Amino acid sequence: MSQQGRSQEPERPLGTPAPRARGGWPPSGSRVGGIGGAGSSRVRRAPVPGSPARRSRVRSWPAAGHDRTAVKRAELETLEQGIRFRTIFLILMGTILAIAATNVLTGTVGLVRETSSRPLTAAEQARYIQDDIARRWHTWTADLVFPVELQYIGLGRVQQYARRVGLAPEVACAAGTDAPVGSVLSEYGCRTLLRATYVDQTSSFAFTVGIAVLGDEERRIAASAQLAVDDRVGVRPVAFPGTATELFGAAQRQRNAWVGVGPYIVFSTAGYTDGRTRQAVAPEEILHSELWPAAQAVAGRIAHALGDEPSAVPQCTQGNVC
User: How far apart are CA 219 and CA 167, in angstroms?
Assistant: First the structure.
């Protein structure tokens, strides 16, 4: 019987070689000591790949650290450049927005000032009057420019009237006046010529009134200074067939004159309706005739209406309420 706690394997004396394993390992002649046995040699085992001892032996390459530092430096420089560009962009956009806001604010203030009602200055009221007068030749109706009937005071302080026979088509200034007059009007930019013919209440006298329209009062004054003082030239008469004026032509004109008002030069010419020419009438007869005073009165009434100040001048920029 075996004893309890003892190995059943026969004991082998110390120092006896261990039996060889299959395959010839360990080789013959090798010494394998027991654990903790005296005189035993420790067998060094090869380190397992991937073990800490193996990893500690891997040498790091210096170039890898340099590349990493260069990358970090490049990234930092790129970041700093982006920050600079963003700062410049924000400053530029802020400046543009500030300028735009200033312009908008200035424009708004100016618009409010212009659109808000305020009293007109004396210069603005004078300008309003000039503009109103300058527009009348095309804003007024024909009956306002050339009334159908005009009253005037004749010889002996007798109340007379002249009747409009017809309106002539609008023509160029040089086409409706004599050459010396037309050249001056064209030189100073005459726009157009309006004409109408009247007869007195007895139909003995014929009067053609012509309105030359210039750009402004300054041009009219300059042109008037260049007109020749000659009562033989001026506006060309307009005759209307089938009326008392059908014989009234250039040869029948007895006298010519003009008067300036605003941007207008109002011409007048007069003659007899029976066809008498200028050469057929003695100068003394013209001086004592009612013909010429009537012609001046008719033209004067038309000129006065064109140049008269408007009855109502606004006191404020928006009517009369400031």
Answer: 26
